[in-house]
């Protein structure tokens, strides 16, 4: 069963503009199945659960506010308690979260902020800099608002993208992709997710004021699609465990759903009677067949970590036969823009 999720948003409990009910309502209008609220250094208990058909997950985005700049933000889902007291030590924070069965994703792990944005608006880059940590679940590889910040080379760019926000979304930063691939090549299977980092604030440029990125718009953009092993039961805790297991295993892909809903996308590999999907490992029994299918036509690329593109196809299907072991993922482009990026399949 496929679920469309966005696991990174904020409310008035930290620096967002809305309440949890506003986030859930926007998620429902955007067609999400699961939405996560991850307020900064505050965990709000008692709200996780179903609201109509949307499952609200309440997590936390933890960082050390005493560190300047305030780098090393961690998205924590499923701890069920406050963990901001561990923020001073990124490794201790990760260890504490994992001891409680939580998932930990390094938020906006690579980030850039143009000089004028830093100098005039006090908006620094907030990447993850302590790369020696271990035990985390994965990387928030594509963060919508981080990409927006990086694209604002001048105030004119800010105005342009405020008027045409869909045009700044091009994909994860190449530096983040390289880090992610290197983790896998170093036997660290980091799961990639995408998130909105939604705040819902209004912005002013002279007399002009508007909510530049409403929750609903962001929830229609960069999302994480996951494959759970069976349908959800509308039991919040049991369903969270299924979602957690799917994310932990990497049965997921990231999509800019503004380019078209990616519901129904699949990427699989099989050899003999053995089969694997995203996040899985396939032991070869001869040649390996790889297949990706997409709901709308696009340019499909099969990429081998450390080697680059090994196959391409235009249309709604890519098929590739190989005997080479390696770590393989898929990217799909529509109109020259990245639409889908998958977690990999390891072939051994």
Automatic annotation (TrEMBL):
It holds the Pfam family PHP. Signal peptide: none annotated. InterPro entries: PHP_dom (IPR004013), PHP_domain (IPR052018), Pol/His_phosphatase_N (IPR003141), Pol/histidinol_Pase-like (IPR016195). One of its GO terms (molecular function) is 5'-3' DNA exonuclease activity. Residues 5-87 form the Polymerase/histidinol phosphatase N-terminal domain. SUPFAM superfamilies: PHP domain-like. This is Polymerase/histidinol phosphatase N-terminal domain-containing protein.
């Amino acid at each position: 069963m496929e679920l469309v999720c966005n696991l990174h948003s904020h409310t008035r409990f930290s620096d967002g503009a809305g309440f949890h009910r506003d986030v859930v309502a926007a998620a429902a209008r955007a067609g999400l199945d699961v939405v996560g609220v991850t307020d900064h250094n505050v965990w709000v208990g008692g709200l996780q659960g179903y609201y109509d058909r949307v499952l609200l997950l309440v997590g936390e985005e933890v960082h050390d506010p005493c560190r300047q700049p305030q780098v090393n933000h961690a998205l924590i889902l499923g701890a069920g308690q406050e963990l901001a007291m561990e923020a001073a030590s990124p490794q201790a924070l990760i260890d504490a979260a994992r001891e409680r069965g939580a998932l930990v994703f390094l938020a906006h792990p690579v980030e850039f902020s143009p000089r004028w944005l830093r100098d005039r608006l006090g908006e620094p880059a907030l990447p993850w800099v302590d790369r020696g940590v271990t035990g985390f679940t994965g990387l928030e590889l594509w963060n919508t608002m981080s990409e927006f910040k990086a694209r604002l080379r001048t105030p004119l760019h800010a105005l342009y993208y405020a008027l045409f926000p869909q045009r700044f979304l091009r994909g994860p930063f190449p530096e983040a992709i390289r880090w992610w691939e290197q983790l896998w090549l170093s036997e660290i299977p980091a799961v990639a997710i995408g998130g909105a980092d939604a705040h819902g604030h209004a912005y002013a440029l002279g007399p002009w004021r508007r909510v530049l990125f409403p929750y609903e718009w962001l929830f229609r953009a960069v999302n994480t699609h996951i494959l759970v092993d069976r349908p959800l039961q509308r039991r919040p805790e049991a369903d969270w465990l299924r979602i957690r297991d799917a994310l932990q295993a990497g049965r997921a892909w990231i999509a800019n759903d503004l380019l078209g809903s990616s519901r129904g996308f699949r990427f699989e590999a099989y050899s003999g009677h053995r089969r694997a999907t995203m996040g899985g490992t396939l032991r070869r029994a001869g040649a390996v067949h790889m297949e990706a299918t997409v709901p709308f036509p696009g340019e499909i690329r099969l990429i081998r970590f450390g080697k680059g593109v090994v196959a391409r196809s235009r249309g709604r299907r890519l098929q590739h036969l190989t005997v080479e072991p390696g770590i393989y993922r898929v990217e799909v482009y529509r109109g020259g823009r990245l639409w889908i990026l998958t977690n990999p399949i390891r072939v051994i």
